[in-house]
Specification:
Blueprint lengths: L18 E2 L13 H13 L2 E2 L14 H19 L9 H13 L1 H23 L6 E16 L3 E2 L12 E2 L4 E14 L6 E9 L37 E12 L2 E10 L20 H4 L9 E9 L6 E9 L22 E9 L10 E12 L2 E15 L2 E13 L5 H4 L12 E2 L2 E10 L7 E11 L9 E12 L2 E11 L10 E11 L1
Antiparallel strand pairs: 1-2, 3-6, 3-21, 4-5, 6-7, 7-8, 8-9, 9-10, 10-11, 11-12, 12-13, 13-14, 14-15, 15-16, 15-17, 17-18, 18-19, 19-20, 20-21
Helix pairs in contact: 1-2, 1-3, 2-3
């Protein structure tokens, strides 16, 4: 006789708990009630109760009828199972009658439980039927920003002639712009230990500071970094393009490899918990990654990560080539392209991130080295990246970069005439860069973040007559777990390493939606 339809309900069970027969742990319906004592007797004989997830109820409060019904259902399922097997003769008629009476007394509560389980099962079937893919997860982010900028003068290129005059200048109009981007991420796993990652991006082509200063040719970025005075998320085309296409897999327990047709090195190298992502912290390339360290960054290539025994040390080695899709040389720039041709970049990073008792890494130090070639310019750059969470509400972080950019046997000003001062005849420059900041996690409320940073993107006496200095501060306010707004202020002094350029100020308000 089947008194109660068996189901997969886990209303009162915990898969990690051992069966319990002690109904008195439930502490109420009450202990003196016939129903309580009857269920306790059944539980003792048939071991049909599992402990509640929190083991016991606290205090002397009564067990609600719905909680009692959950326990009753567990015993019903247990006796039903025995009745359908060779153990049926071990279920006494008296116990079956007792169970039947309990079911009658609690029929309303049991029916409610059945309806809840049925609803959950129906929702689960609907979710599975409408699932995007059994192997692929879709996520995304939408960023919208209102940006206002101002400068009290034209902005000149850094290069100076023998009369200490700039060779080119661009008018910067004070204006207010709207900037938007959307990123769609597809994460696919075939084995549970691999990941095929695809990212699609599009924007509204919005720019942050005028019409030309967001182009690398109008900034020092042409000789080592891009957009050091603009916003990382500006200038994105309205047409969707492939922002990432890479596959990550394990070689061994401690070694992970990634290959990509579209691979960005800054997704793996020079990471920092407080200055790394324009959607959640700083908005300028200057503070998102080392301005000298990634002259190529995006391309076709791969990387290997080795973390011995999953410990405190991690070694990463990567390589990308931007011209990997071109089989022939470029006659205009006289460079060889392809997977092993110009432009290319090889990079290595050694990270030390000791874990504390809670498996967190409050301190991280990263040492880096880059060798690359861009338009016949050879890059040899070293870097340092660090962060220290001093306490729950305060952290310090920073970056430092140094090295050389060389035009081989020719004067470097031949390759960069609008950047290298006209009176410099050498074939290489030795730039430096640095940034330092403070972060305030949970600044106003849990999930908020405040931070301020200062830095100089390109320090070299042969580029301009001053050194550009950037300051940026922001506060991220979470509206919900998936929406946050971030007011952000930038100040840029001596833009383009030129003291005749007026200070640029940029005020933006970012709203980010994640899903």
């Amino acid at each position: 006789m089947i008194l109660f339809q068996n189901s997969d309900s886990h209303l009162i069970s915990n898969s990690k708990a051992e069966p319990s027969s002690n109904v008195s742990q439930l502490i109420d319906v009450s202990h003196q009630d016939w129903a309580f004592m009857a269920l306790q007797s059944l539980a003792n004989r048939y071991k049909c109760l599992a402990d509640y997830p929190n083991l016991t109820y606290q205090g002397d409060r009564s067990l609600t009828r719905y909680e009692f019904a959950g326990a009753l259902r567990a015993c019903s399922d247990r006796l039903t199972q025995k009745s359908q097997t060779s153990l049926a003769d071990k279920v006494s008629t008296t116990d079956l009658l007792t169970l039947q009476k309990l079911q009658t007394d609690f029929d309303a509560e049991l029916l409610s439980l059945i309806n809840q389980v049925t609803d959950l099962e129906a929702k689960n079937i609907t979710l599975e039927a409408n699932s995007f893919s059994p192997t692929t997860k879709l996520s995304g982010v939408v960023l919208m920003s209102i940006t206002a900028n101002h400068s009290n003068s034209d902005i000149a290129q850094p290069a100076l002639d023998n009369t200490n005059s700039s060779v080119f200048s661009t008018q910067l109009n004070s204006n207010t712009n709207a900037i938007a981007i959307i990123r769609l991420n597809l994460s696919t796993s075939f084995s549970g230990e691999d990941l095929l990652y695809t990212r699609l991006e599009a924007g509204n082509s919005g720019v942050s500071i005028g019409t030309s200063l967001d182009q690398p040719e109008a900034l020092i970025g042409y000789v080592g970094f891009a957009n050091s005075s603009g916003l990382e998320y500006s200038g994105i085309s309205p047409e969707f393009y492939l922002g990432a296409l890479r596959y990550t897999f394990l070689i061994s327990k401690n070694i992970q490899a990634t290959i990509g047709a579209v691979l960005s090195l800054n997704d793996y190298f020079d990471l920092n918990s407080f200055s790394n992502d324009e959607t959640i912290d700083f908005s300028t390339s200057m503070f998102i990654s080392n301005p000298l360290l990634l002259p190529v960054n995006d391309g076709t290539g791969g990387l290997v990560e080795w973390s011995p025994n999953q410990g405190d040390w991690t070694l990463r080695v990567g390589y990308v080539a931007t011209g990997a899709g071109f089989a022939t040389s470029d006659p205009i720039r006289n460079i060889n392209q392809g997977i092993f041709g110009d432009p290319y970049q090889a990079i290595a990073e050694l990270e030390f991130a000791p874990k504390d008792a809670q498996e967190n890494t409050p301190v991280s130090i990263r040492l880096q080295y880059t060798n690359g070639s861009v338009n016949n310019l050879d890059y040899n750059i070293g870097g340092l990246n660090f962060e220290w969470l001093i306490n729950k509400g305060l952290a310090v972080f920073g970056r430092y970069g140094f090295g050389s950019i060389q035009n081989r046997d020719n004067p470097i000003r031949d390759a960069l005439p609008t950047y290298i001062n006209a009176n410099f005849a050498g074939n290489s420059i030795q730039p430096q860069t640095w940034s330092l900041g403070l972060a305030f996690p949970d600044f106003f409320t849990e999930g908020s973040l405040g931070a301020i940073a200062i830095g100089q993107p390109f320090i070299d006496g042969n580029v301009g007559n001053a050194t550009q200095t950037n300051i940026e501060l922001f506060v991220k306010f979470p509206i919900t777990s998936q929406i946050h707004i971030t007011p952000d202020l930038q100040m840029i002094f001596n833009p383009n390493n030129n003291s005749t350029n007026g200070t640029i100020s940029i005020l933006s308000l970012r709203t980010v939606f994640s899903f």
